[in-house]
Design a protein that fits this description.
It is a single chain. With about 260 residues, this protein is α/β, with parallel strands linked by helices. The chain is built from eight helices and seven strands, in the order E-H-E-H-E-H-E-H-E-H-E-H-H-H-E. The chain has a seven-stranded parallel sheet, sandwiched between helices. Helix 2 links the parallel strand 2 and strand 3. The chain is globular. The mean pLDDT is about 95. Bound molecules: 1,4-dihydronicotinamide adenine dinucleotide (NAI) and butane-2,3-dione (BUO). The site of butane-2,3-dione has 8 residues, from helix 6.
């Protein structure tokens, strides 16, 4: 019998990350979840343990390189390898460009961009040692293809994620490591609750109105669930995607077309 593969997911405590974890467990992976929110992480890990899923966890901040290295180490200690590493953790920031504050912009880049780079570095170091290659998967967004008004800083971080995905794919191809990204649209998670609240403040909308307004532009006529993202990430994590690298693919129900 072949060894069970291990998938590491940052921001795995809730939202899309938790959805990815559910799907990859079903696909047969052992899981290592990390999150900076210890409470949600522990609750999610317990849910998986209750279903007898092989799982380990690490409380850490993706914007700290030492935490990303320790996360990889946790996976190696528990399961012996890192076969898939998903840089899923991210934050948003709603503000018109006139109101973007230096500290807030810095935090956005620290987590969404620097955090992704540190995750790529830590994962690639381990995957090279294993000599079996691996799959690094990054969270991009439709906003990484077409910047969104009121989400300028956030969009810029996702453009940067796309750039690192392309460059990393080229640099690590010789090590049998592929690097791709998923680009969701409007997913009903805590992130969108906060975006909606931010739009209320800046645009004088009612609660829930921004979410509804953005949903109107979805060709398939509904907002997205974490499972919709997970169906695609399952492919990226599988050998079916072995000939794909450097791509940031829209999985958005039809919002951005390019
Ligand atoms: N919700 C949406 O509509 C979309 C989300 N995305 C991206 O998908 C990813 C996941 O988003 P959601 O699940 O919606 O967000 P969420 O806010 O529901 O969950 C994100 C998780 O990441 C954790 N996290 C945040 N900063 C962290 C840090 N520095 N270190 C470790 N963990 C950290 C949070 O504690 C939380 O558990 C993000 O990268 C986001 O930009 C992309 C497109 C659309
Ligand atoms: C949060 C996010 O990435 C979008 C596209 O809404």
């Amino acid at each position: 019998m072949s060894k069970q593969k291990t998938a590491v997911i940052t921001g795995g405590g809730q939202g899309i990350g938790k959805g990815l974890a559910k799907r990859l467990a079903k696909d047969g992976f052992a899981l290592v979840l990390s999150d900076m929110n210890e409470e949600v992480l522990n609750a999610t890990v317990q849910e998986f343990k209750d279903q007898n899923i092989n799982i380990a966890s690490y409380v850490g901040d993706v914007s700290k390189p030492e935490d990303q290295k320790a996360l990889v180490q946790t996976a190696v200690e528990h399961f012996g390898s890192v076969d898939v590493f998903i840089n899923n953790a991210g934050i948003e920031q709603v503000a018109p460009i006139d109101n973007i504050e230096p500290e807030a912009l810095e935090l956005l880049f620290q987590i969404n961009v620097f955090g992704t780079v540190y995750g790529i570095q830590a994962a690639a170091e381990q995957m090279k040692k294993q000599e079996t290659g691996g799959k690094i998967i990054n969270a991009c967004s439709i906003a990484g293809h077409q910047a969104m008004s009121m989400l300028a800083g956030y969009s810029a971080t996702k453009f940067a994620v796309r750039a690192f995905t392309q460059a990393a794919a080229q640099e690590y191809a010789k090590d049998k490591i592929t690097v791709n990204a998923y680009c969701p649209g409007i997913v009903g998670t805590g992130m969108w609750d906060r975006i909606d609240a931010g739009m209320v403040d800046y645009m004088g909308l009612e609660k829930g109105e921004a979410f509804k307004k953005f949903a109107e532009d979805i060709a398939l006529g509904r907002t997205q669930e974490p499972e919709d993202v997970a169906n695609f990430v399952s492919y990226l994590a599988s050998s079916d995607s072995d000939y794909m690298t450097g791509q940031s693919i829209m999985i958005d129900g039809g919002i951005v077309f390019n």
